[in-house]
Amino acid sequence: MKNIVTLERKDFNNLLYHTAMSVTMKYKKDNSIDTLTDTISNIDLNLIDYNMFFNTFNFVLEKYLELGGNDTVAKGPELVTVIKGHFS
Asked: What's the predicted TM-score (pTM) here?
C-alpha cells in the first residue's frame, strides 16, 4: 500500500457501509437504494472474496477522500451517486 490513511472510527464505519452497498450492487440487477439494506443482510457471503471487497473499499475510500473525506460526505447524496454511477 503506497499511502496509509488514518480514519476516525465513524468514518471507517461509514466507509464499511458504503463498501457493503457497493459490493451488493455488483450482485443486484435492480440498483435501487430502497432495497439495498435487505439485500445486504441476505447476500451469500461466499460470493464475496477478499480481493473484491478490498478493491471496492479502496474505490469507496478514494471517492470519499476526493469529495472531502468527512462525515458530511459519508452521509450526503453525492458519494452514493458516484458509487451508483460506477457500479450501474
From this structure: 0.78
